[in-house]
Amino acid sequence: MRRATILVLLIALLSVIAPLPLEALNVRGHLLKSKTFLSPAFFLHPGSVSNKFYYDVPFPRGHLALKSFNAEVVDENGVPVPLHETYLHHWIVEPYYALKNSDSADAQKLPKGIIARNSGVCTKTLGQYYGLGSETRHTATWVPDPYGIEIGNPEKPPQGYEEKWLINVHAIDTRGAIDKLGCTECKCDLYNMTIDEYGRKLPKDYIGGLNCCYDQTQCKVREGFNGDLRKLFLRYTVTWLDWSDAVVPVKIYIFDVTDTSPPDETSGTACKIEYQVEECSPENRAKNECIDVKVTKEVIPRGGDIVFGVAHQHSGGIGASLHGQDGRLLCASIPSYGNGEEAGNEDNYIVGMSTCYPKPGSVKIEYCKDADR
């Protein structure tokens, strides 16, 4: 089976500035705002897959400090849909810069959109600001005071562009599936897939993964099973503050355990997103030692204080942790599994990831140019 372990880290670049001003410790004194939106509708029938990108989605506008972003899949009546019916493989949200006057003669040579990526470390993938999966209903995304994620700064877009937002939702309808877990793990034989979404032949040792459950693919369902076509949405709630000097900006870093960039590179160009977990050997199974551990080393582009950390894992995951070069534990994130049928407590699914919230200023990362990855 293939797994993904991704760690999201918010870092405040405070290591070279003075202590926080008194007003920064009282950010909540400013008006906290919140609004709930719906993504464009997507449609699923039993066994089908939707993995679409939606551009210029509804989002708060202005120079703001994001404090949280929470999301879940709901039906057309606003009722939360359980994972054993519609598996939320992942959702991501990120800003981009859109060309204002794309029809003008001068604009014909310019890109219509430029992704406004996070601060690292995967430069070719994982550029989102927020992103979760099945764990979305019980995973905290709150950015603690006095910190915030700065968006809508009018000085950031290139000339002639404006900031907009996109959402990607990857959902799998497992109603009537002959193997629900296999469908959510995107096993290629269940999808009858031998090529990826670009028509390229898959390697023989590629058993399953994103290349087999792309948009409009179909996982096997029981013969004779009938289910209605469903109209679904990603419902998301954004909480924010108006930007002010009282807010301390943070940087977003996403680490991928599959990153195999050479030690002398810090660009994260080798983030593969997923990897193959080999089957447990009979010897280890007999000793109840069927645990697969994967480790990578990273160089972060800058130092600062860790403000927030959380991991993203799929079923079977037991946790992720971030350690300093000296081995000390910096942050850990552990999954919780459901034990029922209702949305948010689905049996054997990861329904939440614990979030790491160090005491402000207590966990620092120092950037060393010559450090090992």
Automatic annotation (TrEMBL):
Residue stretches in coiled coil: none
Keywords attached to this entry: Signal
Record keyword Signal present: yes
InterPro entries, per the entry: Stress_up-reg_Nod19
Superkingdom: Eukaryota
Position of the signal peptide: 1-24
Name of the protein in question: Stress up-regulated Nod 19
